[in-house]
Amino acid sequence: MRRLPLVLTAAALTAALTYAGTAGRTPAPSPAAADGPRTAGVERRGSLDTAIAKDQQHLQTLPGDAAVWARLGAEYVEQARLTADSSYYPKAEQALRRSTSLQPDGNVEALTGLGALTNARHEFALARRYAEQAIAAAPAHWPAYAVLVDARTQLGDDAGATDAVQQLLDLRPGTASFTRAAYDLEQHGRTDDARTALTRALQDAFAPSDRAFCCYQLAELDLARGRADDALAGYRQTLDIDPSYTPALAGTARAEAAIGRTDDAITHYTQATAKLPLPQYLLELGELQEAVGHPEKATEQYRLLAAEQHLAAANGVVDDLSLGQYQADHGAAPEAVRLLRAEWDRRQNVLVADALAWALHRTGANSEALTYADKALAHGWNNPLFLYHRGEIHKALGHTNQARTDLTRALTLNPAFDPLRVPLAHRSLAGLQ
Fold this sequence. Notes:
about 0% strand; globular; 23 helices; two-stranded antiparallel sheet; Serine Threonine Protein Phosphatase 5, Tetratricopeptide repeat
């Protein structure tokens, strides 16, 4: 029997969030850019550098300390997340493997660290296995449930992810659990409840980095609902809390693009990509440059994106989703289909479904594309880009009414959901009148 997504009440939020009822659901992705809400209480880069140096020094004196090897491995994973430098992943694996060799049985911290590492490398089935092993060894070890939520979510195991969120909430109602609960709710179209959960997460957050993360997610909700001015204020509040929080800088650019301040948006995107060259940011900057008529500058961003993905692959990161999304619109659509079919074989979540639908559309395979577009929207996520994609697929199939409905809904939800695609949506809609 499958349970409904989170049912939020004021009383429930006081202690935790609860589930009730029965229903089936479809997969949900992890949040953009970080592949899942991060665990509460992590240190920012300066103190993390200090912690790494301290643990390295400790291990020179006591190289047989399995617990410190596990901690060092987890610190390397976090350093990679903060810097977008995937070269930390081999270091993390080496440290975590050393820990398990020293303590093969019941090494919960190392198993959890390996789960976080394999999640970061997009080896989600392996991450799920590590998390489940950690939980079997220590059922009250809440960080393992956070890893499990993220892995199951990415794999499209919707019921399993929901169960893991509930277990995490039961064990540790706080920032890590409430942010994951909020994400679950958002993907099911329950943005008001998601905001309630994020507000609770913010109330529980103490460290500036955690407060910044929660403020950023609240701003992301505003932007997704077409409230660009509110989102811009939220991103600025995030940067006031933690000026080093680069996702808020990229968010600022996203909001500025939505309200027509493209020069400011390009400036802030450029600053964000210089600090944290994530494929998402490079692609967004490239598409904004393309939208304002700077194709040469757009091409430069796409070149940087390819270089970053090559570096990530060399360090064990599989990112066929991002590469497939790029190829569908800016490269070779058949190659996008190949990449995204392979990604779908690994994980059946809605981000992959939408990307594969669009790639198939770009090759003219619209009937099959519609199947995946329907999967992407099956559980109620009000995602304007997904709706735009399905609207264009319906149009290509001659489904005039369905195309008009999806395109209108996309533009109603967020009239500025994408600088490159909004004009195309208006053009398609006008052609359907």
